[in-house]
Write a structure and sequence with these properties.
Strand content of chain B: over 45%
Number of helices of chain B: 0
Number of helices of chain A: 0
Largest sheet of chain A: 6 strands, mixed
Helix content of chain B: under 10%
Radius of gyration of chain B: 14 Å
Oligomer: heterodimer
Structural class of chain B: mainly beta
Order of helices and strands of chain B: EEEEEEEEEEE
Largest interface: A-B, 28 and 33 residues
Distance between the termini of chain A: 37 Å
């Protein structure tokens, strides 16, 4: 079963607006990562937030993590047409263990209209 | 710093054939993971290697196998290809630290496999 579930599945906004995507997961995690994927290409790492962190910023990106609700959000401010892509959250459920694997949600397709 | 390199980028194979995909991780990264991405199933974990040892394996049939070499480069092999194996295969590398486990996972551009 999917560990992460992104919401919404698709989001269409105008350039300059903010975009918020949410991710929920089911089990305890070590960390959570957000990725961007342009059509059919590789995943680009955006940001990692550890389970003991609540908020992290990187440029126009802001990620929050609420471990009590098992959820995270990704905010992209002042969006640009180039931000058009699919966005995935991925969780790592093992803390320093020997069974490393990422579990992905199905992603949010963001379309930024010029 | 060079990123994760996957070769080849595109492959077309016939049902029943086998295929080998290659992944060169970021220098210094000893953990290499493989993922399959399809429109129906999304991104699914195949396996992870660390220091030439498979540490974890996803829920895929035995036709899917992999290995890691002493320089951390990894290969995955799929034997007796089926139409349903058509997918984007992604490799990721990450650093493993004793105090905190795996750090960020960086992905390659993927290998697009088409089985006809």
């Amino acid at each position: 079963s999917q560990q992460g579930e992104e919401d919404p599945q698709a989001l269409s906004i105008q350039e300059g607006e903010n975009a918020t995507m949410n991710c929920s997961y089911k089990t305890s995690i070590n960390n959570l990562q957000w990725y961007r994927q342009n059509s059919g290409r590789g995943l680009v790492h955006l940001i990692l937030i550890r389970s003991n962190e609540r908020e992290k910023h990187s440029g126009r990106l802001r990620v929050t993590l609420d471990t009590s609700k098992k959820s995270s959000s990704l905010l992209i401010t002042a969006s640009r047409a180039a931000d058009t892509a699919s966005y995935f959250c991925a969780t790592d459920a093992n803390s320093g263990g020997s069974n490393y694997k990422l579990t992905f949600g199905k992603g949010t397709l963001l379309t930024v209209n010029p | 710093k060079a990123g994760v390199t996957q070769t080849p980028r595109y492959l077309i194979k016939t049902r029943g054939q086998q295929v080998t995909l290659s992944c060169s991780p970021i220098s210094g990264h000893r953990s290499v993971s493989w993922y399959q991405q399809t429109p129906g199933q999304g991104l699914q974990f195949l396996f992870e290697y660390f220091s030439e040892t498979q540490r974890n394996k996803g829920n895929f049939p035995g036709r899917f196998s992999g290995r890691q070499f002493s320089n951390s480069r990894s290969e995955m092999n799929v034997s007796t290809l089926e139409l349903g194996d058509s997918a984007l295969y992604l490799c990721a590398s990450s650093l493993w630290i004793i105090s905190g486990g795996n750090t960020e996972a960086f992905f390659g551009q993927g290998t697009r496999l088409t089985v006809v």
